[in-house]
Amino acid sequence: MSRIKEHRWDCTSCSMNLGDNDMWFEGDVCGDCHKQDMNTQQKDEVERVLIDMFDRIGIQTPSNFEDITQHCFEYLIIDEKYNPLEDFDSQVAFAFKLWIEEQK
Q1: Are 69 and 46 in contact (CB under 8 A)?
Q2: What is the pLDDT of residues 68-96, one digit of tens each?
Q3: How far apart are CA 104 and CA 99, in angstroms?
Q4: Mean pLDDT, range 23-49, rounded to an integer
Q5: What's the Rg (C-alpha) of the chain?
Q6: Are 91 and 82 in contact (CB under 8 A)?
Q7: Which among 26-30, 44-48, 75-79 has the top mean pLDDT?
Q8: So what's the pLDDT on residue 92?
């Protein structure tokens, strides 16, 4: 078997055939799939915080909840405003406050 084929592998998530330089540390998921999985987990966490916040202030989940979630996620994760040294819940609350201000 040639050395080139010996060091190729398939991502278990997207089935893309990659070389060993593209390998993620677990060895079976490519970097793009790993990033997508991390983004999904972080967006789920933003949703959890928003729902908890709405419950605490006694309001129902708004009909535009997905828009609010997307705004907060993009502000914190995509725009890289998230600071791991600060409380995540308060950062989501701040992103929500910014969303409210943009609606005026």
Answers
A1: yes
A2: 999 999 998 777 888 777 888 999 999 99
A3: 9
A4: 77
A5: 19
A6: yes
A7: 44-48
A8: 92
Question: With the CA atoms of 22, 13, 88 and 98 taken in that order, what torsion angle do they form, in degrees rounded to the nearest 10?
Answer: 100
Q: Is residue 44 a part of any domain in this protein?
A: yes
The number of distinct structural domains making up the chain is: 1
In a domain, 49, yes or no: yes
Say how far apart CA 33 and CA 37 lie, in whole Å.
6
Q: Would residue 56 count as lying in a domain?
A: yes
Q: What is the pTM of this model?
A: 0.72
- What is 15-72 written as a DSSP string? --EEEGGGB-TTSSSBHHHHHHHHHHHHHHHHHHHHHHHHHHHT-PPPTTHHHHHHHH
How far is residue 48's CA from residue 53's CA, in Å, rounded to a whole number? Answer: 9
Question: Is residue 77 one of the residues assigned to a domain?
Answer: yes
